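Q: Got a minute? One more chain.
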Amino acid sequence: MSRPLLFLDVDGPLNPYAAQPERRPDGYTTLRVPQDSGTPSEHAGLSARRRPLRVWLNSEHGRAMLRLNYELCWATTWMDDANRWIAPVLGLPELPFVDFGDALFQERPDGVHWKTGPLVDYAGGRPFAWVDDEQSGLDDVYVAAHHEGPGLLHHVNPRIGLREDDFRTLADFARSLDTPQATG
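A: Always. Here it is, folded:
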């Protein structure tokens, strides 16, 4: 059986952007990303002279993710830019990413997060875990109804980012997939 997917959001789980802005969390490095690094359509109508985006990253997170029994995949608005800016700081190799295409930031009338459908489609029935700071119970319901395999939607507090307990939860989920399920 192939390893489950681990869908990684950047802002929130890896970059605790909601932490107090003047207090970088212990163990984190500050990265300054030029906000004109994207495509012109991503920045339409915005000044090219904006201040760089402050991103806090903890290199230990990369090592911890590589120790998990998952196939890592970016599930972030950074898309492929996560390979350019985030992966090197975390010590991660270039990873595949979900291209959200037209779904990017498109609110759904049913309240399901705009990432959820594309992630389920990308997984194609494979077991997956998704770490993000924006899922809700509606996303759990959607995954249960539309995804044939096991799925773990793991919410991470954007004030503190990923912690040891989060990695333990992810490892436990991956281990549970290797355990034969009781049938009754």
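A: Residues 164-178 form the longest helix (15 residues).
Q: Perfect, thanks.
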